């Protein structure tokens, strides 16, 4: 959920771009944005990706099934790095700093130089130990029983 929507209830096309950036990182990493913590900083996936971007260690973000793919090993992993870069551009804190979805499509379809991303909005540091899974906060109602009866 885009920061401006979560905090102020404002929704725009740039909110969808934010969600698209999260989705790209989830596909590339094979992990959910929430549910686990990453590395010693206990960040969500977005914070983890930002930290790895700054360290220049993007291979750690890429899911093993993508890394083991022959097209990844035979070719330069540049396309996946580019997708991570675009994903981070979609996660900018201010909507005006995010590209439009039309611009994202253009970025994905050509090799032009991309602007450097700024720190994403809504980095969550939850203080949970990095090697401990976060508990799912949703509940399951196991009490209700629905029986269908004909009239």
Automatic annotation (TrEMBL):
Residues 1-114 form the Protein kinase domain. InterPro entries: Kinase-like_dom_sf, Prot_kinase_dom, S-locus_recpt_kinase_C, Ser-Thr/Tyr_kinase_cat_dom. It comes from the Eukaryota. Residues 128-137 have a biased composition (Basic and acidic residues). Pfam families: DUF3403, PK_Tyr_Ser-Thr. Residues 116-139 are annotated as: Disordered. This is Protein kinase domain-containing protein. It comes from Stylosanthes scabra. The lineage of its organism: Eukaryota, Viridiplantae, Streptophyta, Embryophyta, Tracheophyta.
